Amino acid sequence: MEKQRIVVLGAGESGVGAAMLAQKQGFEVFVSDLGAIATQYKERLEELNIAFEEKQHTAELILNATEVVKSPGIPETAPMIKALKEKGISVISEIEFAKRYTKAKTICITGSNGKTTTSLLTYHILKNAGLNVALAGNIGNSFAALVATADFDYYVLEISSFMLDDMYAFRADISILLNITPDHLDRYDYKLSNYAASKLRITQNQQSDDVFIYCADDDETLKAMKSVKINSKIVAFSIRKEIENGAYLEGNNLHININLKEELTMSITELALQGKHNVYNSMAAGIVAKILDIKNSVIRESMSDFKNVEHRLEHVGKISGVEYINDSKATNVNSTWYALESVNPGVILIMGGVDKGNDYSMLKDLVREKVRAIVCLGKDNKRIHEAFEDDVEVIVNTFSANEAVQVAYHLANKGNTVLLSPACASFDLFKNYEDRGNQFKMAVKEL
């Protein structure tokens, strides 16, 4: 019998991981990337003798595949994907492919905002409880590479809507949908309902002993749930109302009740992650821990000593009574809304960069309420000026992280917060959002 042929499109972390797993499972493997392949991934493919091409897609080497694993970044409308679909060749995501070869339990986390933080926190609690757990997906390691090279009992997977679009038989043991706000709508015909439907694919194939965890305060989630049949147990979290089976807030106290197990109660002042949106993230992670029967003492300790991801509401330091926060990972308006929502009034907001057709109107109320001045950091700041000229007294243009920090330092008074939360991509002045965040931190240290 002829060897089945797996073609992997895209040679980033997920693509190379899929290729490693396909090779381990005895498939003939070929990797194709329309762009240049990063040195580290090229070296890994060469070490493993996996055939690949870069800067092109050769049709005759791809259209003879038994199955294709595609990178989440490649849209359905790409000519090669259309050609594969016309030939009836199955196109799946790396996550779908990897799940076939592991019996490990999967905890899958999606949402427009907060999924990285919630994934990291969930992983932190499970690891502290002594579980044999790995973190993968949209963050850090490729799920497929870990399945190929290691043996874990649990995987915490951060999952984007693009990954969900190419998942068909995949089944999450525990799935979490944190929230739905407009993002990546260019991939969904500019319809929020299409994007929401994509997010709810996290529940597909779940059975009665699986669990789906959602936010009872998120209107878009509630709306989208009406059009999907969910077969798993459903657990909610809310900061507005009491939840019998799930998590809720009463005053400053967080309560988690799951199936009449011993209730977990802790004050939100003890949480390592502060701000309303982080109460939601902590609730979601805490519910997972309770479902897995982790001791309350471990959950409490883990939720209070957790360190958040770099460049995401990261505290850089306090100078002359002014707090400096690096939120360079906020590359869309929603993320900046979350950042502003989590800090006290008296903000010098550093924002700007490459604008992806941003609608700044959702920020106006928070800017009016909390922001004293805006320091623009980008080559073209016209749209920020237009959006906020009636809401703040001072809007200044700067063209480097150093200049932005110097200007913010002179504008800030004791008790204020200088917040870098750009709401835009970074590649006009920086390599990426990490480079932008690192330059901001260096500039703060030099004050």
From TrEMBL:
The enzyme's first-digit EC class, named in words, is ligase
Keyword check for ATP-binding, yes or no: yes
Give all residue intervals belonging to the Mur ligase C-terminal domain.
Answer: 311-424
The record ties this protein, via InterPro entries, to: Mur-like_cat_sf (IPR036565), Mur_ligase_C (IPR004101), Mur_ligase_C_dom_sf (IPR036615), Mur_ligase_cen (IPR013221), MurD (IPR005762)
In terms of one coarse class, where is the protein primarily found?
Answer: cytoplasm
The positions annotated for binding ATP are 111-117
Q: What pathway or pathways are given for this protein in its record? A: Cell wall biogenesis; peptidoglycan biosynthesis
Q: Which domain of life is it from?
A: Bacteria
Q: Where is the Mur ligase central domain?
A: 109-288
What keywords tag this UniProt record? ATP-binding, Cell cycle, Cell division, Cell shape, Cell wall biogenesis/degradation, Cytoplasm, Ligase, Nucleotide-binding, Peptidoglycan synthesis
Q: Tell me, what does this protein do in biology?
A: Cell wall formation. Catalyzes the addition of glutamate to the nucleotide precursor UDP-N-acetylmuramoyl-L-alanine (UMA).
Family that this chain belongs to: Belongs to the MurCDEF family.
Q: Which HAMAP family does the entry mention?
A: MurD
Q: What NCBIfam families does the database record attribute to this sequence?
A: murD
The record's section on PANTHER family has: UDP-N-ACETYLMURAMOYLALANINE--D-GLUTAMATE LIGASE
For this entry, the protein name equals: UDP-N-acetylmuramoylalanine--D-glutamate ligase
**Can you name the source organism?**
Pedobacter gandavensis
Which gene holds the coding sequence for this protein? Answer: murD
